[in-house]
């Protein structure tokens, strides 16, 4: 039987790292008006030019109500707009506003530095191993939650 401090080692460690990562990303993006929750919305809409909320949901895998709250926040900030789809009148498309495009470009310039700091203490081999481990874990979790 595992020791008491080992029964949740992986869950606890990943949860702790995730919490610290969110705090770090939030601090790094605060001046852009973005958070660890909303930066990805701006990034993905900016990359694609426009997305429906369903498409955004499929990319992010968050609860739809969390996506709605995040999108609503970005609309209030003037970063994003919802417009009628040109091909399907029932669908609204998310697009970046002029201000949102400015934030997108600042974000794209800043993300490599933020991302790099996360693995700064690792060797190149450890970074490669880390990428593979994370990919394997994500694939495994996908199969468990479907």
TrEMBL record:
Keywords: DNA-binding, Transcription, Transcription regulation. InterPro entries: HTH_MarR-typ, WH-like_DNA-bd_sf, WH_DNA-bd_sf. The keyword Cell cycle does not apply. It comes from the Bacteria. PROSITE patterns: HTH_MARR_2. It holds the Pfam family MarR. Residues 7-139 form the HTH marR-type domain. This is MarR family transcriptional regulator. It comes from Pediococcus inopinatus.
């Amino acid at each position: 039987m595992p020791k008491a401090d080992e029964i949740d080692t992986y869950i606890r460690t990943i949860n702790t790292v995730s919490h610290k990562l969110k705090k770090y990303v939030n601090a790094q993006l605060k001046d852009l008006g973005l958070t660890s929750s909303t930066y990805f919305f701006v990034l993905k809409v900016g990359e694609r030019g426009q997305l429906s909320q369903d498409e955004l949901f499929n990319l992010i895998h968050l609860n739809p109500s969390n996506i709605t709250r995040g999108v609503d926040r970005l609309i209030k900030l003037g970063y994003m707009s919802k417009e009628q789809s040109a091909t399907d009148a029932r669908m609204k498309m998310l697009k970046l506003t002029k201000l949102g495009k400015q934030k997108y470009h600042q974000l794209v310039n800043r993300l490599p530095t933020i991302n790099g700091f996360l693995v700064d203490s690792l060797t190149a081999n450890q970074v490669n191993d880390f990428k593979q481990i994370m990919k394997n874990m994500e694939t495994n979790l996908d199969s468990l939650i479907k």
